[in-house]
Amino acid sequence: MSNLQNTGTSLQLVSVEESAPYELWLSWLKNVAINCLIQLHLPQKTGYKHSALIFWKVIILSALMALSLDEAANRLNDTLWKEYNASLRRKKIPKQYKGAPRRFERLCPNGDQVRKYRNSLPNYVVRTLNQIIFDAQLQYAKDHKLIGQELTLLVDNTQEWYYGKDRYPQNTFINEGYNGPGTKHKRNYLGMMIKSGTTYLYAGVDMIQKHDSNVPTIMANIDRLIQSGFRIEKVLADRWFPTYDFLAELNVRNIPYIGPYKKYAPIKRIIEQYLKDGKEYIIPYQIKGAPAKYYHSPTQQVWIILTNRRGRRLRDVRKDFLDGKVSLDDSMKEVFVIITTLKPPRGKKARQGWAVKVCHAYDARWNIETGFRDSNRIGWITNARTNTRRLFMFTLRFWVFNIWHLERAKSHRRKGTPKSWKKGPTLRHFGYKVAVLEQCY
User: Fold this and answer.
1) Could you say which DSSP state residue 179 is in?
2) For the chain, is the Cβ count within 10 Å smaller at the N or the C terminus?
3) How far is it, in rounded angstroms, from Cα 28 to Cα 205?
4) Residue 172 carries which DSSP code?
5) Is position 2 within any domain?
């Protein structure tokens, strides 16, 4: 167990890592998926030989070990044959079938069979399954006291570059981007992550159509969290999220918002005015909706905080501008704009401390960016073509990301564990160790 290999890579575990207890996460995910299929009254048998259980084991193992479905199926098949022959005096050799190419008897389906099973799942099952898995992971964290009742919601977009022939409007999920590796076409995904203390877990992932709003999807996830007994302390998002619709929905639910804001023309005038007179860096501001839809609707009250995210004081930026060392345009680029729906206190000192706390609170949003990079390390090659199948294979990596962070959160709280192991396993160690414990390696 101490020397695991995958495609020629050796991974040595020290004694502390070998003795650290782990949950059987592969079985846990598999059982949640099977319970979902039972609730939806879907068949538990595929063909005359294999059950849905073994198909799900291959699908989740491929995500956990970053393997293709063919590689995961072959690895699991070899393991099952070793397990079958472990108690036999006369070892059984897989029977070879006639014809070409050479085919042998299998104890688990091959990659093509798993792929057909995945494609046979109805669209509503795939979307419902994603929601059930994320809810089950949050409930597990809540039951084991890994997260509290009060959560911070982080929201951001990520993309998956597309190299096929589909185009908009034939495929409404294909968008145009830039800086892609050999392509300018992509699929956009919306990710929602919850923060509770030092624990970060994804609470939902969805694919967004071109020209569609993110707001209904975000609010549906927020309502689901509230119905599950959680309380959303605040929402942190990037500069393109604070629209009139989004802030109005959050205001109805009494949820504060913190995030950067685009430098539209009125914002540039505010920054220019500050650079010239240096009076106010916390400014009340009204966000209006589109006149065609929200002409008679009230505006959304927010407060603008001018700051600098590069370790410089605003007065130093303003001094360089007044001394003529830096042009107006370059000085405006150094000013970072944050808006919030939290109301500032009275008093100069109190407002200054409040602005610092708001800016520091926004720093937690970068954890969802780190989560996207970590989830990309879990990704593997898939030939899923339809949007629903692509979403299913894409969200598998976030299931694995969540169980990895659940294991790390348990390591933080585990007593009698050496300090060197308190941080929990790395992503590579976690995948290998779970695969070994589940006897899939």
Assistant:
1) S
2) N
3) 20
4) T
5) no
Q: Is residue 14 part of a domain?
A: no
d(CA 343, CA 43): 54
pLDDT band at 350 (very low <50, low <70, confident <90, very high): very high
For residue 379, the 8-state DSSP code is -
Phi, psi for 68 (deg, rounded to 5): -75, 165
Q: What is the pLDDT of residues 135-170, one digit of tens each?
A: 888 998 999 899 999 999 999 999 888 888 888 888
Q: How many CB atoms lie within 10 A of CB 370?
A: 11
pLDDT tier at 20, thresholds 50, 70, 90: low
**Alpha carbon separation from 175 to 78, 171, 217, 369, 396 (Å, rounded):** 41, 9, 18, 21, 22
pLDDT tens figures, 224-265: 999 999 999 999 999 999 999 999 999 999 999 999 999 999
CA-to-CA distance for 41 and 253, rounded, in angstroms? Answer: 35
Cα separation, 237 vs 304, in Å, equals 15
- Domain carrying residue 386: 121-255+380-413
Tokens of 295: 């002409």
Q: What is the pLDDT of residue 279?
A: 85
The letter for the amino acid at 292 is A
Number of domain units in the chain = 1
CB 390 within 8 A of CB 379: no
**What's the pLDDT tens digit per position in 287-329?**
988 887 887 888 899 999 999 888 888 889 999 999 999 999 9
What DSSP line would sit under 308-360, residue for residue? -TTS--HHHHHHHHHTTSS-HHHHHHT-EEEEESSPP-SSHHHHHHHHHHHHH
Please report whether residue 292 resides in a domain: no
Q: Which tops the pLDDT comparison, 10 or 335?
A: 335
Residues 361 and 346: their CA atoms lie apart, in Å, by 20
- Tens of pLDDT, residues 50-79: 888 888 888 887 877 777 888 889 988 888
> According to DSSP H, which parts of 7-164 are helical?
15-19, 25-39, 52-64, 69-85, 111-120, 123-143
| Residues ≥6 apart with Cβ < 8 Å to 114 | 55, 58, 59, 69, 73
Domain membership of residue 263 (yes or no) is no
DSSP state for residue 96 in the 8-state scheme: E
Q: Got the DSSP string for 186-247?
A: EEEEEEEEEEETTEEEEEEEEEE-TT--SHHHHHHHHHHHHHTT-EEEEEE--TT---HHHH
